[in-house]
Structures are given as structure tokens and as C-alpha cells.
Amino acid sequence: MDLRELKIVDSHHHFWDLSMKKHPWLCEKPLINFRYGNYEKICKNFLYDDYIKVSENHNIYKTIHMEAEWNKNNPIGEIIWLEKIYKKFGLPNGAVGQIWLHEKGSELLLKEYSKHPIVRGVRQKPNYDNSKNPIVKLSDKSFRNGFKNLEKYNLHFDLQIPWEYLDDVKLLADDFPNTLIILNHAGLPHDRTKNGLKNWSNAINIINLCPNIIVKISGIGVPNLVWNKTNNEYVIKHLIDKFGPKKCMFGSNFPVDSLCATYDQIVETLFECIFDLADEDIKNIFYQNAIKFYKPL
User: Fold this and answer.
1) Does residue 125 contact residue 169 with C-beta atoms inside 8 Å?
2) CB-based contact 182:158 (threshold 8 Å)
3) In 10 A of CB 286, how many CB atoms?
4) Distance between CA 149 and CA 179 in Å, rounded?
5) What is the C-alpha separation between 270 and 264, in angstroms, rounded?
6) What is the model's pTM?
7) Tens digit of pLDDT per residue, the chain (297 long)?
8) CATH: 3.40.50.10190, 2.40.128.110, 3.20.20.140, 3.30.70.100. Which one for 3-294?
9) Is 274 within 8 Å of 248 (Cβ atoms)?
């Protein structure tokens, strides 16, 4: 199989135009604490032309835009902006909006999202341990009261959460079997020591059999660690072994992951790690699963 000709659906990327001043975490100083460390490098515009340039060596078929922490006062504004980009350029072909399911009124926002054909789901990042921000756990009654409305509006849930809390993810998936949960960034396997990978693997094994949980092979960079087969093969192969090639999908997480690797490195590393799989499995991971689950425009 020729990687350069392989059709790719990028299930996870961002656009931002900082002249609009809609992204506080990118526009304001001091910068926030971030899992990749200093991120000044990405505090600049990243738009359609930039994406096409970084991905020019690959056959990008469609893309899914992940919410990029647009100003909380007007989350629908990000969707309207993306719709204009799609109309002009033909991508992104799907969008995931920002949500705060624990807050009163979250259903009104879900209802508004459901009016926009480009929207496929919503994302929230629970907060279990940062006392500087409101603590929001998947087990909270207020969160679950909001979560139950996702089925009503036919929206799935993109979830970014550290592996330490995947037991709560299983409980959520079991209690809401008709809502698709898409685990972002492989559950954040940041500790690549032997013991760290063992703990992450055990956590993945808690959720892998849930029929309504799938996973993105994305965002697996580690600061000061080269993004290559040697450093990422265990994570990639464990995900595919446990979830199966029909429940894993590629996401570049660009431009965020440009802090750790080039677009080519990210794509080529994944391809190198799964090269021994059947062609159909490779196609599933790189584009068919994203088509199936996101149903992009």
C-alpha cells in the first residue's frame, strides 16, 4: 500500500485566527500550564492554507474540526465561522462544538448545535484535580443531567480525559449505551516509563469492550521525545489490539501536535506501526472509521 495515495480523514484538527481574539488561551498572557510545556510556537494563525501546506504530502479526503476553546460567551460563533470556511474551501467537513454539560442551560446550547448540519458532536474536558477551576467529574449529577440530552439531539461526545479516570468513563458508557463516546488522544499516555505504560494499559482495558466507546490515535506526543515508531508503537498497537481496527481512528491534532512533530512524522509513524495489518484494517484506521462515526459532509 502506498501511503501517499492512501485516503485520509483527519478526525481531529483545529483552525484559529488570532486576529479575531476568540481564543483566550492563545491570545492572553501569561500562557496557561499545558501538557506539552511552552506553546508559544502555536500562538499564531492556523487556517485552511496552513493546514493544506503541512499536509500536502498526503491524500487528505475530509477533516473534522475539534473545538479550540473559543470564547465561552459565544460558542456558536465558532461553528458559524467554520461553516463559512467549509463553504469556501470544502473543509472541515464536520465540527465538534464546545459544551459545559454540568451547567444549567446546556440543553439550549445542544439544541442550537443540532440546527447546524456541520456539527457532529460536542466536547468537554472534565476537571478532577485542578482546584483553580470548577471541579467537574463524569459521575456528578449535574454533568449526567446534561449528558443524557446528547441522545435527544443525536450528538456524540468527544472526551479528553487522563487515563486515571477511565473507570468513570466506563460507568458513563454503561449508563448511556445509546450515546457514542469518542476518547481523544488515547487517554493521554504521558508517562512512558514501564510502570507508566502498564498503568495506562490497565486503564484502557477497563473501557475497550464498551460498544459505545471508540478511540482516536491522536495527541500522543511527549515533550522532548521523538515522535517515531520506537517511542509510540506500544501505545498504538495496544489501542488497536484492545479496541480493534474498527474502533480506532487517526487524528493529527494539528497545529497543537506541531509542538512535538511534523504532520508527516505523525502520519508516517502511524502507518509504520500498522503496516503489517490487512489493507482493510489500515483503511479503517485512516479514514473509513471516521466516515462511519462522524458522517462528514
Assistant:
1) no
2) yes
3) 28
4) 9
5) 10
6) 0.97
7) 899 899 999 999 999 999 999 999 999 999 999 999 999 999 999 999 999 999 999 999 999 999 999 999 999 999 999 999 999 999 999 999 999 999 999 999 999 999 999 999 999 999 999 888 899 999 999 999 999 999 999 999 999 999 999 999 999 999 999 999 999 999 999 999 999 999 999 999 999 999 999 999 999 999 999 999 999 999 999 999 999 999 999 999 999 999 999 999 999 999 999 999 999 999 999 999 999 999 999
8) 3.20.20.140
9) no
- Alpha-carbon distance of 219 to 254, in angstroms, equals 9
